[in-house]
Amino acid sequence: MFLSISHELRTPLHGVIASCDLLSETNLCDAQESLLETAKSCASSLAETINHVLDFTKANAMRSGAVLELVDLAQLVEETMISCWLGRTVRPHTDGIGGIYTAGSQTLRRKSISPDFVEPLIDIEPIENWSVMTDKSGLRRVLLNLIGNSMKFTRGGYVKVSLHRGPSIDPERMAVELVVEDTGCGMSEAFVRDKLFHPFSQEAPLAQGIGLGLAIVRSILKSPGIDGTIDVHTKVNIGTRMTIRLQPPTANDLRSWTRSPSQSLTRLPSFAMCGFHAEHRGSGMLASGIRRGLRHWYGTIVEVDVKEAGLLIVDGDSIDISKLDALGANRPMILLLCSSPVDSVVFKATQDYSGNNRLCTVVVKPIGPHALSKALSALVGGRNSTPSSPLQHSLPVLPPTSQPLPPTAQERPMRPQSNANMSRLRVLVIEDNLVNRKVLTAFLKKRNCYFDEAGDGIEGVQRFQESKGAPYHVCLMDLQMPRKDGFEAAREIRQLEAERDIPLFDGTAIQKTKIFALTGLASAEDRKKADEIGFDGYLVKPITFKALWERLQQVVDDLP
Fold this sequence. Notes:
The chain is α/β, with parallel strands linked by helices and 560 residues long. It is 36% helix and 17% strand.
């Protein structure tokens, strides 16, 4: 049963990620690229969560011990907080599957911050290297649970995630403190003492959820890959602060995630902050955090009156966005922060402002050092480069409304790809899921590969038999299919190869077809079975086309 669940979860998610990969190869404007990268980031986060849940429940045991991987903790914290917040700021218009998603309760049209407004905050200590070796998916799951709980039980104020170093004893390990705090309803001392980490325990019985989140958190923290602790400080009607402490091995990663503006921006223009309210704890903390970041990057900063500023940093959640143009009497650059990723008011207001050589960039909250630094580099640096981060939700510097809008998806040409020699490659796709088969064949077509496709194992074996004169170099094989599964189909293909002399690809050498499993089955038993049958690779869905592209390039490079 669990194997079936694994397949049913991974297969549609593979279709989502693969479709995003294909769409990313078209010419998109900055706003479209930003939203697409957000979708890919969230899908990847969901894939990691699925992997961890299946491992945690032993439904799909892929590992016998701790799996440590290189992780940039600053990137993990910022990405996870943004994923949680984006999930909160959209809500289903209907309760059923396929419902339309619209902007959530915190709209962009409020003219002042009300007491029930919740400000999302990210506070990351500005050190050069946050790279460690740890269980990435496990730590992400911990953060998702803690941040999700804070958002669920906070009706006003703020939800904040912090990343700081603690006192370290071992020079080869980094003492890390991860803190999730909120101004929510808090918990009683008796509940914390007796039931907090017990499965199916909730202080408010009618609250959303089933009370498993913190039980999972404690189990993950005890696992060998993390080996951390959690401390809880809470007070009813005041809020909750949860502190995670761990000491993972340090790592030197020269590819560290960008957390500072472009080095060419040595001086920040005089700036003003508009729409931030000191009386609201969350809004005041956001403004203070931005100022701290600017001082860290630029040293001396000059904050002036709104009318004198060359740069306006605007909290779009507390002003009337439709009147954004009124702030630009002196044509300042505007960095607009807002809570919702999609809103027609923002698009229109930004487009109206971004004419006559005026610049406006939008960053979706919560804003961490990466998103802020990328926004400043794009805005103050004249937008010489296109934002590439999944967290940098920057709208483009749009032309005046009299100019034509970007071309439609049908009109946008494909970006050039390196497809040299790929036309020599012959590929057989055996996949019962129509969506996945379509995206795979679209990927191959764009790279000039010859391909045939089959909807199940029986049809796939028939296709292979019919290719005697021109055998396939590669077979992409799903494992769970009706009539005949991928294991049996691969076994028959290998038997056919053994029974006949395979036609020569180059006239001098015999070469077997490379069979790669593309599957939602991730257990060690399935991998071992595939290896025994004669598979040449095992790719667990959802996969990225980058990973598949690397496998195909290796095959092409080995062709005579």
